[in-house]
Amino acid sequence: MKQVLFIALFLVGYTINAQNTHVSRNDGKQMIHHVYFTLKNPDSVQNKQNLKEGLQSLAAIQEVRHLIIGEPAPTFDREVIASDWHISEVIYFDSVADQDAYQIDPIHQLFVKNYSHLWSKVVVYDILID
User: Fold this and answer.
1) pTM here?
2) CATH code for position 97
């Protein structure tokens, strides 16, 4: 009986601590989720269009506040510019918790399942907005 009580108290303490840790992860700040996709076949106009259509479906996820999809801009070639990607998305969220919910949303999971065959690499930059 003492073991059961100890386990129950441990789980309650752990849950409370996990909730407090979650809140402190972003302190109520909004965040941006920026994803860069490197395509397996970057010369395929159809593959680019398919991926963009798939990305557009992510706008239906409740937590998504704003979605931007694009390709590299034809700016001057400079040493500091990364040009090893083909399609990018930028998503604004009200919180880290909203981005966490987005990651497990069935629409996002379906997007990954249906379109991951198009890319060879994905790089993500997540930032909190000051």
Assistant:
1) 0.78
2) 3.30.70.100
